[in-house]
């Protein structure tokens, strides 16, 4: 709403300076879908939830005994999932009135968990990647309660059926498919509902082991990070319905863009699209500096800028869900919040004034100094006030962008995911728990 | 000229009648506020006590004591558990209403605190003081997060919009001949490390009117202001256009509050210096009812969040709070 007051035509741009830093002692930090909170995973097994309005930690999710490896938010930020090297995935319910909040579920795995995430439509479906290179889809719903390993089907020609370890696993934004990257550099696509593989892609020219995925919100574009120190953007193909015979699409994907650092050849820790998908931020894995590279996707992927965050090397970054803001985490555990500052407009302090960059020749309007009948003026004013106003209809703003496709019942995959929904209702608010320390 | 809008079914006027008279205040009343869950009414005045009433029975439920000087405003948290009060002792207190215990005392204003409000999820509190400063507080810790040197005179009203991205404030800056001053201020998200919040807009109407109360409409699209030219105005703050003017009452001297009523018909309710409570139709701007009963200036009014109920408070010679209800609307 206030974006409009500041400059009515501004689209999202990339941030330029550090606004604030949070001493969070974390290994990564991730915005919630509303952008009001930030979840920080820590080395000591605790995850903390920070309120960006008050810049204070408001909840401590204390349940793991080893490093938190990933954190995910449900659509309306009520549930938070944490995964850890202690072999557990914990789902927390932030609607609880106490701190630490209630555990909604604990999922015990067979190995340290490298990452885990919620299904975008239903937080009772969880995807977990284990450090042993296996991926599981865990369904906590009563009717579907299951734990299924997503397995790449055997090929006759591969020696001994030895499969390549899975190194990254993500839902696409619709939740219909699970994208898995492997050590050998191929991308496997599974149907979330049937758990069958629908496609296997080789990356044209080879890329080495895959390290990370990020989707643009529309789900049409995917960027990958791999061990050859290059980020690649792909157009996500349309997938057919899973074939009951177990056959699948086998294609080679040609990247639309390759992003790399031509001079230092640095590797990348993470990358993140801007909310509109027009920018891409890459976090450089430089051991001595904190550098974020920004590419302008709408301008044919041209390199736009480097953000320098000082001495503490970068470990992770995440773009705000709706604003020109990035949270980058340093190796020392601090979280830097980047923003793009608006210049102060002094004209705003005086009503009816406007600031102009250059002198403007004033042109008197035809009727400007006409003496008008007072009665006439009043009548005109009264007429103008006849217009109906609407004071209480709330139009939900873009502060919580819902890019979910509305399920209309035709789509089997979406209908399946919407069955037995979670209690993550829109519009709930996190209760304030008073700090008793000092009075 | 577009086609006329379809006739509104609830265009019949309100029929408010006096239900309860709450007696207990010993000095002028400054504010009355219903709790968001509708079960309680909080009131405060020039004595050092906040009073909590049951609006349905008219009984006094509890006194909140602790302030050492008179009070100017109170505000409820979203969950109706906490109440914040603004006092002339330069502090803001946050009370747990059920127990009557002070949870936090917010100190920092250099002069009397005149007005305050919570944000949408009650994590922040904004207060305005007679030093012209607006302060933003972290309610959980009771710490001041930011001070905006927003005005040069009494800040008489501050209010957050729905998503807490804006604060609207107004002040008696009349002496520098900027009559109506509504300031919209963004907080934090863009401007954390700047010394002050950014002022986005100042709304001024060209005549000699000092604005003394202001608030966002329930959907935060408009601003309702009351001014000392005996007029209440509804503004579109994006275009700085005055959409509606409500007149008829008297308001030349006191800080009189106006509010929206959306439970039955859509009304604007305000106090007046002619000892009445005035009710206008939101759209047509016609006076639809005046409530007579108070014997002195009515400065405080509040509307119930879910029922057709109005509370009004008065000063000096009439120290009563009156509760008015319109039960005909339900019978119809």
Automatic annotation (TrEMBL), chain A:
It comes from the Eukaryota. SMART domains: WD40 (SM00320). InterPro entries: RBBP5/Swd1 (IPR037850), WD40/YVTN_repeat-like_dom_sf (IPR015943), WD40_repeat_CS (IPR019775), WD40_repeat_dom_sf (IPR036322), WD40_rpt (IPR001680). Residues 404-423 are annotated as: Disordered. Residues 409-423 have a biased composition (Acidic residues). WD repeats lie at residues 61-94. Pfam families: WD40 (PF00400). Keywords: Nucleus, Repeat, WD repeat. It is found in: Nucleus. GO terms for cellular component: Set1C/COMPASS complex. This is WD40 repeat-like protein. It comes from Dendrothele bispora (strain CBS 962.96).
From TrEMBL, chain B:
Keywords: Repeat, WD repeat. InterPro entries: Beta-prop_WDR5-like, WD40/YVTN_repeat-like_dom_sf, WD40_PAC1, WD40_repeat_CS, WD40_repeat_dom_sf, WD40_rpt. GO terms for cellular component: Set1C/COMPASS complex. Residues 21-324 form the WDR5-like beta-propeller domain. WD repeats lie at residues 22-63, 64-105, 106-147, 148-178, 204-245, 265-290, 291-321. The keyword Repeat applies. One of its GO terms (molecular function) is histone binding. Pfam families: Beta-prop_WDR5. CDD domains: WD40. This is WD40 repeat-like protein. It comes from Dendrothele bispora (strain CBS 962.96). The lineage of its organism: Eukaryota, Fungi, Dikarya, Basidiomycota, Agaricomycotina.
């Amino acid at each position: 709403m206030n974006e409009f007051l500041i400059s009515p035509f501004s689209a999202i741009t990339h941030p330029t300076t550090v606004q604030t830093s949070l001493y969070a002692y974390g290994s990564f930090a991730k915005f919630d879908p509303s952008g009001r909170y930030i979840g920080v995973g820590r080395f000591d097994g605790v995850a903390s939830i920070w309120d960006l309005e008050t810049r204070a930690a408001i909840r401590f999710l204390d349940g793991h005994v080893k490093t938190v490896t990933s954190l995910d938010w449900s659509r309306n930020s009520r549930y938070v999932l944490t995964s850890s090297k202690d072999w557990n995935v914990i789902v927390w319910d932030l609607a609880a009135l106490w701190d630490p909040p209630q555990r909604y579920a604990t999922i015990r795995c067979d190995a340290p968990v490298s990452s885990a995430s919620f299904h975008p439509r239903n937080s009772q479906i969880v995807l977990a990647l284990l450090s042993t290179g296996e991926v599981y889809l865990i369904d906590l719903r009563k009717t579907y309660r299951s734990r299924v390993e997503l397995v790449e089907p055997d090929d006759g020609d591969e020696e001994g059926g030895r499969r390549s370890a899975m190194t990254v696993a993500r839902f696409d934004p619709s939740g219909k498919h699970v994208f898995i990257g492997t050590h050998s550099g191929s991308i496997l696509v599974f149907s979330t509902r049937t758990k069958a593989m629908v496609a296997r892609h080789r990356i044209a020219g080879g890329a080495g082991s895959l390290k990370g995925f990020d989707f643009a919100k529309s789900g049409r574009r995917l960027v990958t990070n791999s061990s050859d120190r290059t980020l690649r953007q792909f157009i996500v193909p349309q997938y057919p319905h899973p074939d009951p015979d177990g056959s699948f699409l086998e294609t080679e994907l040609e990247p639309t863009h390759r992003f790399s650092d031509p001079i230092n050849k640095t590797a990348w820790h993470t990358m993140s699209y801007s909310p509109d998908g027009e920018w891409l931020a890459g976090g450089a894995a430089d051991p001595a500096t904190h550098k974020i590279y920004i590419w302008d996707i709408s301008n044919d992927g041209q390199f736009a800028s480097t953000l320098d965050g000082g001495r503490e090397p970068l470990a992770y970054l995440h773009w705000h869900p709706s604003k020109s803001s990035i949270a980058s985490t340093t190796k020392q555990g601090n979280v830097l919040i980047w923003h793009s500052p608006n210049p102060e407009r002094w004209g705003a302090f005086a009503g009816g004034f406007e600031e102009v960059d250059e002198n403007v020749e004033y042109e008197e309007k035809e009727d400007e100094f006409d003496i008008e009948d007072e009665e006439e003026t009043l009548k005109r004013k009264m007429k103008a006030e006849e217009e109906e106003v609407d004071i209480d209809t709330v139009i939900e703003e873009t502060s919580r962008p819902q890019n979910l496709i509305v399920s209309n019942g035709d789509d089997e995959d979406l209908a399946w995911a919407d069955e037995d929904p979670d209690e993550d209702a829109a519009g709930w608010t996190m209760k304030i728990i008073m700090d008793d320390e000092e009075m | 000229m577009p086609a006329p809008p379809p006739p509104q079914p609830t265009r019949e006027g309100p029929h408010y009648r006096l239900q309860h008279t709450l007696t207990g205040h010993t000095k002028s009343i400054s504010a009355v506020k219903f709790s968001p869950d509708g079960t309680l009414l909080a009131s405060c005045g020039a004595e050092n006590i906040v009073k909590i009433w049951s609006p349905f029975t008219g009984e006094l439920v509890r006194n909140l004591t602790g302030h050492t000087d008179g009070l100017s405003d109170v505000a409820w948290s979203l969950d109706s558990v906490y109440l914040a009060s603004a006092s002339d002792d330069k502090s803001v207190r946050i009370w747990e209403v059920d127990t009557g215990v002070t949870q936090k005392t917010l100190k920092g204003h250099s002069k009397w605190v005149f007005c305050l409000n919570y944000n949408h999820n009650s994590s922040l509190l904004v207060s305005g003081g007679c030093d012209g400063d607006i302060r933003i507080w972290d309610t959980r810790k009771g710490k001041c997060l930011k001070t905006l040197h927003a005005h040069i005179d009494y800040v008489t009203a501050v209010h957050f919009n729905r998503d807490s991205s804006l604060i609207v404030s107004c002040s008696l800056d009349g002496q520098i001949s900027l009559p109506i001053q509504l300031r919209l201020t963004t907080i934090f998200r863009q401007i954390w490390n700047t010394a002050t919040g950014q002022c986005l807009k100042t709304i001024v109407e060209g005549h000699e009117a000092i604005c003394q109360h202001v608030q966002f409409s329930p959907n935060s699209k408009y601003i309702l202001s009351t001014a000392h030219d005996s007029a209440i105005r509804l503004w579109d703050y994006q275009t700085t256009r005055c959409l509606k003017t409500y007149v008829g009452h008297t308001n030349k001297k006191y800080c009189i509050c106006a509010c929206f009523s959306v439970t039955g018909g859509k009304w604007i309710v305000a106090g007046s210096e002619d000892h009445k409570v005035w009710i206008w139709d939101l759209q047509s701007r016609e006076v639809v009812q005046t409530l007579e009963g108070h014997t002195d200036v009515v400065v405080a009014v509040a509307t119930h969040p879910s029922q057709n109920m109005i509370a009004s408070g008065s000063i000096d010679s009439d120290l009563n709070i009156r509760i008015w209800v319109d039960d005909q609307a339900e019978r119809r």
